[in-house]
Specification:
The complex is a heterodimer of chains A (about 425) and B (about 170). Chain A is an alpha/beta fold. In chain A, about 30% of the residues lie in helices and about 20% in strands. Chain A is globular. Chain B folds into two domains: about 140 residues, Aconitase, domain 4, CATH 3.20.19.10; about 30 residues, no CATH class. Classes of the chains: A alpha/beta (about 425), B alpha/beta (about 170).
Chain lengths: ~425, ~170
């Protein structure tokens, strides 16, 4: 019997073939945490474990990205805590303005296929797009991994998800994952490792793939992996990284379940508050008036996203009743967008451009909503009060849908703005 | 280990955002104590004032979904919650809760018959949960021995300090 991608990575790590259900202790290749989780991890090390040690400073990364730059003295205190710790223990710190961890870490060349990565953030699954086994954990698990370089894991069941069909015009990987949420629901893949397959993948860039794997935490998945192919190799080669492991599952690998999604006739999708799996086709929600548009986050703040938005907003203006907040997910993306005149187009259309931060997605800063306000957002969660007042509402959609909605001041099908 | 307490009956898909909203977490991030008054603020008004030491949460499917924020289980433990029973748990929340020594137990029947304020008794060693008001008993899958040890120590950090190794791992010196 052949092995899945997950089984290959974890078997290689422990030096024998592992089986779903068994518990292993494995070394980790990278640990990271941000200003929402690192402060608690530092407290666990200093106040609880009372054994402050970093197993390998080259394999531990802190990123100040959730509320960056700091909006309050309380946040400034924990940023300072992270800086002091990084300085003392020579841990690499990416300070404010560098970008959102899940975007920045691949950009920095810190992710390679086959790595075992532990991130103190649920969206760590994003890095599975690079065929890494990347899982989200809490601050205590992160603290243990920082100190000892190890984590205990239960080998998950592995589910194959095949995506077939050509992406219709105006439909993006965000729409695919929202559509999956609609059928799989928010707990459908709990404890499972998801592996993507199918011909559609060949046409999805790394930017688009990262959106797909990013939101697999919303279906409950422990990890979400995409096999290495020509697209992956090209992404690494463009960054001067050659000879990456060509990690793919065996053709006779066995999965606990196999799902197939044909996206040939998919419409733009939208998740209605207050649940990520409350997903409808755009035609069912069109026309609803909005107050704010947020385009950014680890889900959809990438270069391709900004490019799509700029194309739609070209020669249009943001509706004067609406704020359109755009936050590139990293400094690199910001710079690239600047060089390609995208930032200028967005500003001319009336958008506000923020520095790289998670910001409004988690209600930390940069555009919180007032009572009864409605936002359309390219981020990943729409729970009660997620982006502001408990009576505000968040609709989740693709950057294209968000941009078209910004023009009209109401939820809008993007296809009318795409030729 | 016997846990007895009155119950808060909650529904499906309770997220870590519901437990501690991101906006409150970040406005008070330097201190867990400052976060406490905001626990469940947006879905259970006055939870902070009404909760009593030893209370138990009984919920439906997918408890703890969403963010990895460990503040969520920590705050529930700090505020007095002694155990959480649910039809299923989100993966990261489950791990975080065990890591900090908060019992999280998967049950099937109990949530269906339990009402707010019923008294629940949990015997972790025997693997039994009883709703004393309704006289309904449910057998649960007992925890693996190592998980029981982690809970007995009050969390994984104390476990490491006591035994000198990671759970399931060899000595880490």
């Amino acid at each position: 019997m052949g092995l899945t991608l997950t089984e290959k990575i974890l078997s290689h790590a422990v030096g024998r073939t592992v089986n779903p259900g068994e518990i292993i202790v494995t070394e980790v290749d990278l640990v990271y945490a941000h200003d929402g989780t690192a402060p608690l991890a530092i407290q666990v090390l200093s106040n609880e474990l009372r054994f402050i040690k970093v197993f390998d400073p080259g394999k531990v990364v802190f990123v100040i990205d959730h509320a960056a730059p700091s909006p309050s003295i309380n946040v400034s205190k924990v940023h300072k805590l992270m800086r002091d710790f990084s300085y003392s223990f020579r841990v690499k710190l990416y300070d404010v303005g560098n970008g959102i961890c899940h975007q920045l870490i691949p950009e920095e060349g810190l992710v390679k296929p086959g790595m075992i990565i532990v991130g103190a953030d649920s969206h760590t699954v994003t890095l599975g797009a690079f065929a890494a086994f990347a899982i989200g954990v809490g601050s205590t698990d992160a603290a243990i991994a920082i100190a000892y370089g190890k984590i205990w894991l239960k080998i998950p069941e592995i589910v194959k998800i095949a995506i077939e069909g050509n992406l219709p015009r105006g439909v993006y990987s965000k729409d695919i994952i929202l559509y999956m949420l609609k059928t799989i629901k928010s707990d459908g893949m709990t404890y499972k490792s998801v592996e993507f397959h199918g011909k559609t993948l060949q046409k999805l860039s790394m930017d688009a793939r990262m959106t797909l794997t990013n939101m697999c935490t919303e279906i409950g998945a422990k990890a979400a992996l995409i096999p290495v192919d020509a697209v992956t190799k090209q992404w690494f080669e463009e960054r001067g990284i050659y000879n990456i492991k060509e990690l793919r599952p065996d053709t006779n690998a066995e999965y606990s379940d196999e799902l197939l999604f044909d996206i040939s006739n998919l419409e733009p999708q939208i998740a209605l508050p207050p649940n990520v799996d409350n997903v409808k086709s755009i035609s069912e929600v069109e026309g609803l008036e909005i107050d704010q548009v947020f385009i950014g986050s680890c889900t959809n703040g990438r270069y391709e996203d900004l490019l799509v938005v700029a194309k739609i907003l070209n020669k249009h203006k943001v509706n004067p009743r609406v704020r359109c907040i755009i936050i590139p997910a990293s400094r690199n993306i910001y710079l690239k967008a600047l060089r390609h005149d995208i930032i200028e187009k967005l500003l001319q259309a009336g958008c506000v451009i923020g520095p790289p931060t998670c910001g409004p997605c988690i209600g930390a800063h940069m555009g919180l909503l007032a009572e009864d306000e409605i936002a359309i957002s390219t981020s990943n969660r729409n729970f009660i009060g997620r982006m502001g007042h408990k009576r505000s509402k968040v609709y989740l959609a693709s950057p294209a849908t968000a941009a078209a909605s910004a023009i009209e001041g109401k939820i809008t099908d993007p296809r009318k703005y795409i030729s | 280990m016997i846990i007895r307490g009155r119950c808060w009956r909650l529904g499906n898909n309770i997220s870590t955002d519901h437990i501690i909203s991101g906006k409150y977490k970040f406005s008070t991030i330097s201190s867990l104590d400052q976060m406490l008054p905001h626990v469940f603020e947006e879905i259970i008004p006055n939870f902070y004032k009404q909760v009593r030491y030893g209370d138990i949460i009984v919920a439906g499917r997918n408890f703890g979904m969403g963010s990895s924020r460990e503040h969520a289980p920590r705050l529930l433990k700090m505020i007095g919650i002694s155990a959480i029973l649910a039809k299923s748990f989100a993966r990261i929340f489950f791990r975080n809760a065990i890591n900090i020594g908060l019992p999280v137990i998967t049950v099937n029947k109990i949530p269906d018959i339990t009402e707010q304020w019923d008294i629940i008794e949990i015997n972790l060693l025997k693997g039994i949960v009883i709703n004393l008001n309704k006289s309904v008993e449910e057998r649960i899958q007992p925890y693996p021995k190592i998980i029981l040890k982690i809970l007995a120590e009050g969390g994984i950090i104390n476990y490491i300090k006591r035994y000198g190794n990671l759970p399931w791992g060899e000595n880490i010196g």
